[in-house]
Specification:
Layout: E1 4-8, H1 14-21, E2 30-34, H2 35-41, H3 44-51, E3 56-62, H4 66-77, E4 83-87, H5 91-102, E5 111-115, H6 123-129, H7 136-149, E6 154-156, H8 159-169, E7 174-177, H9 196-202, E8 206-209, H10 211-214, H11 219-230
Parallel strand pairs: 1-2, 1-8, 2-3, 3-4, 4-5, 5-6, 6-7, 7-8
This protein binds cytidine-5'-monophosphate.
């Protein structure tokens, strides 16, 4: 499986996302559609972007009772996305239900990955606000092992945790890693960050990059820089 850069299309609406995508004339980046765009435009935005030839990671981070997640995943599966996700926090029953819902009658399904701990979460916040009194690495690894046991394809985690996840869950268990910044770039609300180059060294399979590309003066150049540093 090849490494790739996934561009987080965190835009307020259709016009903004198409203005952004129109700048990419030679390449069709793998795109992440998250809550902001999906809630603003509804499922049609997924079909419209897919029709332009992009692979899509639909990042809606489901977390609810198993029955609700099973039925919601069945709806998302019909959108023909390449990857989608949920919170591992929802427990193994919910993850197994999600896989059932996602699997189409012909047996195919999008990749399903689980968010471990958000890359904006620190160990201190986890302890004080989530009441989880364990080292962050241990929590991420435990959630990754639950996800693997439930049959999922991988996890969302920080690049800083990718190596340990592969060691515990196997080389083919995917690590999809946001929290990527160019050296010296603005960290924003992210806490556990690395550069694209370091993410490659640490073993990430996919990096998810938003503002360093979407807010760049030249987004195409920033995307190409990510590819150069991460993939090549
Ligand atoms: O702009 P930035 O590069 O920080 O964007 C990161 C993207 O990855 C955002 O869309 C965010 O919702 C998503 N994400 C994250 N941390 C996770 C899961 C998803 O930052 N654990």
């Amino acid at each position: 499986m090849g490494k790739d850069v996934i561009v987080a299309c965190d835009f307020a609406g259709r016009r903004q996302v198409f203005d952004f995508l129109d700048q990419f004339t030679d390449k069709k980046p793998y795109l992440k559609i998250g809550m902001e765009l999906f809630y603003a435009e509804g499922p049609q935005i997924v079909r419209d972007i897919k029709a332009r030839g992009h692979k899509i990671f639909l990042d809606l981070k489901l977390c609810d009772i198993p029955n609700t997640v099973r039925k919601s995943m069945a709806v998302l599966s019909g959108l023909d996305v390449d990857m989608t996700n949920l919170h591992a926090f929802g427990t193994a029953d919910m993850m197994r239900a999600a896989l059932e819902g996602l699997t189409r009658p012909d047996g195919t399904r999008p990749l399903l990955i689980a968010v471990t701990q958000l890359t904006s979460t620190t160990e201190e916040r986890m302890k004080n606000e989530l009441y989880i009194d364990r080292p962050l690495d241990e929590v991420v690894l435990g959630y990754a092992q639950n996800a693997r046991a439930a049959g999922l394809d991988g996890v969302v985690c920080s690049p800083l945790e990718a190596g340990k996840v592969h060691a515990a869950c196997g080389a083919s268990f995917l690590t999809v890693t946001p929290g990527v910044r160019f050296a010296g770039g603005d960290v924003g609300d992210q806490a556990r960050v690395t550069t694209p180059e370091r993410a490659r060294e640490l073993g990430s399979d996919y990096i998810v990059v938003g503002r360093p590309i979407t807010a760049a003066a030249d987004p195409v150049a920033a995307y190409e820089r990510c590819l150069r540093e991460f993939v090549l």
